[in-house]
Amino acid sequence: MEIALVDLAAEPDSSVGGGVRTWLAGIPNENTRRAYAGHLEHWLSWCAREGRDPLDASRDDVDGFFDSLRGAADPPTENTIRTRRSALTSWYTHLIDCGILADNPAASVRPTGCKVEGCPEATATGFARSTTAGTNPR
Q1: Tens digit of pLDDT for each residue in 115-125?
Q2: Which of 49, 55, 83 is nearest to 68 (CA)?
Q3: Chain-wide mean pLDDT for the chain?
Q4: Residue 61 neighbours by CB distance under 10 Å
Q5: Cα–Cα separations (whole angstroms), residue 13 to 7, 35, 52, 62
Q6: pLDDT of residue 5
């Protein structure tokens, strides 16, 4: 099942749709907006296929999503995975800012090869839990 953000954003009473609309409207660069919209569509489609509500997503759901990307017949590049993670983190941060959610399930996911000082070692899945799990870095 594929999710089209255009259709989703048109749902007037949907927290997800409203969050998508206002989040995309706040991204000033058209290229970034288009790329992030595509990355969010991948996530929402995965959630729909897996029977997960994106508003109830857990860290394990986000890990499962990235595991599925890495295990695909034609997996995306590490750069694409990092950008997809940034898009998810940005969207969930926006939902927190709007009062729709309390936690960001994508905030503590660190891609393999993280060069940030203090970045935890990657796990076998290619991601590791941050020592700031459960916090909302801004």
Answers
A1: 445 544 444 34
A2: 49
A3: 77
A4: 18
A5: 13, 25, 19, 25
A6: 52
- Structure letter (DSSP) for residue 115: -
Q: Which domain holds residue 48?
A: 5-129
- DSSP-derived secondary structure letter, 125: T
Number of domains in the chain: 1
| CA–CA distance, 60 with 105 (Å, rounded to integer) | 8
pLDDT tens track for 34-62: 999 999 999 999 999 999 999 999 999 99
CATH number for the domain spanning 59: value is 1.10.150.130
Q: Flag whether 136 is in a domain.
A: no
Distance CA 20, CA 10 (A): 10
